[in-house]
Every structure is written in structure tokens, then in C-alpha cells.
Amino acid sequence: MSELKEVTVSGSVGKQVFPSTRPVKVRSVILVAVSAAVATIRDGNNSGEVKLVTIGPAGNTNQVVFDPCVRFDKGMHVKVIGTSSKVYLEID
Predict the structure, then answer these.
(1) Ramachandran angles phi, psi of 62, nearest 5°
(2) CB 53 within 8 A of CB 76
(3) What is the DSSP letter of 10?
(4) Domain ranges in the chain?
(5) What's the first-to-final CA gap in the chain, in angstroms?
(6) The whole model's pTM is what?
(7) What DSSP string describes 28-76?
(8) Within a 10 A sphere around the Cβ of 32, how many other Cβ atoms?
(9) Are 12 and 74 spatial neighbours (Cβ–Cβ below 8 Å)?
(10) Would you give per-residue pLDDT tens digits along the chain (92 residues)?
(11) What SS3 class is residue 15?
(12) Which CATH number fits domain 3-91: 2.40.390, 2.40.50, 2.60.120, 2.30.30?
């Protein structure tokens, strides 16, 4: 069973969404871009390996589905830039 995790705008620093003790698999990423937005998702912390980047023009919603899921073994750090924009992570 999957869970949906919302991540809001985090500016230049980003947010540690899952700790290093919890490996996760991402089934899909949904970017809701109220203004032009970009989301960067890293394996680990804010200096970890960039695994996913999604970009959306203002007023659009983009979904990317992965088959197989993208695995994050070192935790997950997400940076969302774009006024009032959000990312939803479908975690397997």
C-alpha cells in the first residue's frame, strides 16, 4: 500500500523528508506548480546524490510515474522552489 507525502515550498535549503534510517521507494512524483516551479529530490541529505528533478510552468500539474520505483537508501531530501507550489510523493 502506498502513501502520499506532501512537500511544500522550502526555498534554497530544502527539507529532510525521510531520515537516513528509512529507505523508501518513490512510485510517482506530482508537481503542482502555482508559479513556475522546480523540485529537486536527493538520496540522503542536502548534499546527497540528485536522483529526481521535475520542472513545471506556472498553472500546471505534472505527474511522473516510475516503473520500477526509484529507490532512496540514505533517506530523502526535497527542495521545492516556486511560490505556493507543492510536490506530492507517492511512496511505495
Answers:
(1) -120, 135
(2) no
(3) -
(4) 3-91
(5) 6
(6) 0.91
(7) EEEEEESSSEEEEEEESSTTSEEEEEEEE-TTEEEEEEEEEEEEESS-E
(8) 19
(9) no
(10) 789 999 999 878 899 999 998 899 999 999 999 999 999 999 999 999 999 999 999 999 999 999 999 999 999 999 999 999 999 999 99
(11) strand
(12) 2.60.120
